[in-house]
Write a structure and sequence with these properties.
54% strand; 416 residues; five-stranded antiparallel β-sheet; single chain; mainly beta
């Protein structure tokens, strides 16, 4: 009973410190929702919008799924700048995993299909399926479609010449996988594909010189605690280097100035009596162009699922705080400037984008109306009244009270 009470006290202390962190860090910018959007989309018994892009006309392109609708549940929605729906399309498959908005008003979407239906699968360790790359025009009509048998796509990025790069994994029975990287013409024709054994790619970022940064976990089913790998490949997919980061799960990435990358996801730390329990916290880090850790920070919340650069400020992070959706704004060194947690209902934000106006938009799902609905929010970032106090740097924003850090040098080289 004493051990249980002690664990509750530790958990409560962590929560208090995280809440206080938001209060003391705000100042350089502040989130203003006064003129922003807060819209839900009901496309079935369960709607989730995993992908977001700004359309050429200033509206929004949203991708995800509407489970419970007739036929396949993958979903693309086009709205105007006010969030009013213009059309929705079903590109095929179970869900949209990623979306690229095109200059002509259309989009390229990556969808996937799990054999037996992804909400009906009980044994994910033996899941199999396929993916599709689909282009839709400005009216939501399919322009072309390519099927990738045995592949689970997770991320897309646009290339300077109009090509499309895609990442994910090859499903292998028994919970194993090989990471997948492919490049395609603007018409969907394949340029090349490459695989990397014993891995699952969750995120993909391009480099100015034409190389690719790819990162993820060792299995499709994320293990806690676990480890992540990160890799740089040249313009033809040849591996340049690969490294490992332990007790961290990389879910998202983006390129930063200077040739490095920002990565985000989760970190795990032991707590409780004898460290027998595991706590998961939101985490962000900068990796230099050679794969070395520049800095890492624990940030408020439980998970970072998406990131976007905010010019002149830093980065917008989207994810969840416990079971509630959240957004955090950080500067270029990972210090929290402001944050917003929508804690009145369960949900999660899995995509974030900075709009042409400078506003920030994010999408995901919310239970605010009593059921799981797709959700789109937007807000402005206003100048604050002062400079936020400096937290521990470099290092973690939160330390000591929740758990001792497991070890320095969590990044180490692995065999190629």
């Amino acid at each position: 009973m004493r051990a249980k009470r002690r664990n509750h006290m530790i958990g409560g202390l962590c929560a208090l410190i995280l809440i206080s962190l938001l209060a003391v860090s705000a100042g350089a910018v502040s989130i203003d929702e006064t003129a922003g959007l807060n819209l839900t989309f009901h496309k079935g018994t369960y709607t989730d919008l995993f992908a977001l892009g700004q359309a050429a006309d200033g509206g929004y392109l949203l991708g995800g799924f509407g489970y419970g609708t007739a036929g396949e549940s993958a979903l693309v929605i086009k709205t105007d700048a006010a969030g009013v729906e213009g059309w929705s399309a079903a590109p095929g498959g179970d869900s949209v995993a990623a979306l690229l908005a095109l200059e002509d008003g259309g989009a390229v979407v990556a969808t996937y299909t799990v054999d037996g239906g992804f909400l009906a699968v009980s044994d994910w360790a033996n899941a199999t399926g396929s993916s599709q790359l689909t282009a839709v025009d400005a009216a939501g009509q399919t322009a072309w479609n390519v099927t990738l048998d045995g592949v689970r796509l997770t991320d897309l990025t646009a290339l300077p010449d109009g090509g499309i790069a895609a990442a994910g994994w090859i499903w292998i029975a028994g919970g194993e996988s090989d990471a997948f990287l492919g490049v395609y013409e603007p018409t969907g024709a394949e340029r090349w594909t490459a695989t990397y054994g014993g891995r699952a790619a969750h995120t993909l970022s391009p480099s100015p010189e034409g190389s690719f940064f790819v990162a993820g976990t060792y299995r499709p089913v994320i293990e806690t605690p676990g480890a992540s790998w990160l890799m740089k490949a040249d313009a033809s997919g040849t591996k340049l280097w690969t490294k490992e980061i332990v007790n961290r799960t990389i879910l998202t990435s983006l390129p930063v100035s200077g040739g490095g990358y920002l990565v985000g996801g989760t970190m795990t730390e032991p707590y409780g009596e004898n460290g027998t329990m595991i706590a998961t916290y939101a985490w962000v880090a900068e990796i230099d162009g050679d794969g070395n850790l520049a800095w890492e920070r624990q940030v408020p919340g439980a998970e970072i699922d998406a990131m976007a650069e905010v010019p002149g400020t830093g980065y917008a992070l989207a994810g969840r705080w416990g079971s509630a959706p959240q957004v955090q704004i950080i500067d270029g060194d990972g210090n929290v400037l402001d944050g917003r947690v929508w804690d009145s209902a369960k949900g999660r934000l899995t995509s974030v984008a900075v709009l042409a106006s400078g506003e920030v938009a994010a999408s995901g799902w919310t239970g605010m109306n009593g059921s799981a609905e797709g959700w789109l929010v937007s807000f402005a970032l206003l100048p604050g009244a002062g400079t936020p106090p400096q937290t521990e740097a470099p290092g973690f924003v939160l330390a000591g009270a929740c758990a001792a850090l497991l070890a320095a040098g969590v990044l180490r080289k692995t065999r190629k």
